[in-house]
Every structure is written in structure tokens, then in C-alpha cells.
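seq:
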Amino acid sequence: MSVLLALGSAVVFGLADFLGGVASRRTTAWTVVIGSQFSGGLILVLALPLLPSATVQTSDLLWGAAAGLAGAVALTQFFRALALGTMSVVAPISAVISGGVPVVAGFALGERPTVLAWSGIALALPAIACISREHSDVIEKTRPDVLVSAMLGGFGFGVFFVLLDRTGDGAGIQPLISARATSVLIIGAIGLATARLEPVRGRLLGIIAVSGVLDMTANVLFLYSVREGLLALGSVIAAMYPASTLVLARTVLGERLQRVQIAGLAMAAVAVALVALG
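struct:
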């Protein structure tokens, strides 16, 4: 069940990031982040009465708030990179780092996956790197600051995964509410202070709202995935979200897939199978 939840999280994360990237090309990254964070938090609060009751400790809310801070920084940097760079380059770079950070943290915290699971992890990270492969001219044209933003975004996502995993199993989704409230307040305040928020309406507003709802759905799936299994395994599978982002970039935006990227998708499928068998 843990693997299926993590895989679902990866698919939904990819959909959310694709919509966020599209929206970031039409308005500021700060506007997309605060709008998507607000819509995701709102749907979570509305769904709370329908979910089982939970026993929440103060530490759970504090871990959630810290995760929200890391996630807010990550989203801002990631959407900025998507807005200025090529989606099929930016998303996988972030994913490799976001998957690697929890693997290291999980090992440091005492997690010991099986040999098969480690084989899946070992295959997953280069698989994502293969997915990121593009023509050399595309890579050369990518601005250094875009690459830095992509890497910072990936590191922030990885820290978000680690901090969220520190919450108690009985806390339900309340840590996510704490995380989302923190990110909305911080990003909103900074955006207003720096005049980086722009009014949006119509179709663009809908895209941002749907991106936020999908992002929160993916977060919930991930949270329950790591509660069912290991942080290292759930995180590395969730980090494969560029696969769906890449497919959408190809079909909707016309970004070309190379043979090595297709090979990377096949490697990712094998990696998921190894983790599941492990």
C-alpha cells in the first residue's frame, strides 16, 4: 500500500507542477505559489470534518509549520525556474535532489531498506537524471540562475518530505494544515511587501486553484505513504513526478522527448517494481 500511495503522489505532484509551471509563465511565481497554497489549504480544511479524528501533539504542528516554511521556499524557487527555463530540464533536476535528500536523512535516522529496495533507489535517481537529459543546446541556453533555482527547489522539497515524516502517525492531516497555514502567511506577507503579487482572474485563476488542490492531494498521499512504510522509499518514488510533468510538457507544450528520456521512464518503472518487491 505504501508504494501505491507514493506512486499516486508522484502522478498527482507531476500534474500539479505542470499546471503551476504553465501559470507561472503568465504571472509571477509568487502569485502562483500563494494562490495554489491557499486553494490547497482551503480544500484541506473543508475535507477535515469528513476524515477520522486524530490525536495531535504540539510537536506535530511545529514539524508541520517547519515543513511549510521549507515547502514555501521550494515552491517559489521551483515555479520561478519553470517560468524562465525549459520544463523538461527544470523539473527532473529538482526531483533528483528532492528524492536524494530524504534517502540520506532516512538512512541517518536508522532506516534500513532491503537489498531489492536499495537496488530500486539506486536505479531511481539515475532514471530521473535520464529523464532530464535534453539536447546540449537546450542545456547550454538554460540560465545559471534558473539551474540554481531548480536545485534550491529540489532541496526544499526534500527537506519538506523529511520534516513531514517527523510527525506522529496519529496526527492525521493536521500537520499539513499547519504547514499550509505557515506557507500562506509567509509567502503572502513577502509577496505583498515586495509587490510581487498580481491580480488574476478567469481561466488563469482556475489553473492556479486546481494546481493547489492537486498539490495538496499529493501531499496527503505522500504523508500516508511514509506512515505506512519507509521515508527513503516513499520519497524516492514520489520524486518521480517529472514523468507525468514530462509527458504533459510533450503533449501539451510540444517539448520533445529524447530516446534517453524514454529509457529513463522505463528505468523508473523498473525502480518502482524493485521497491515494491523489496
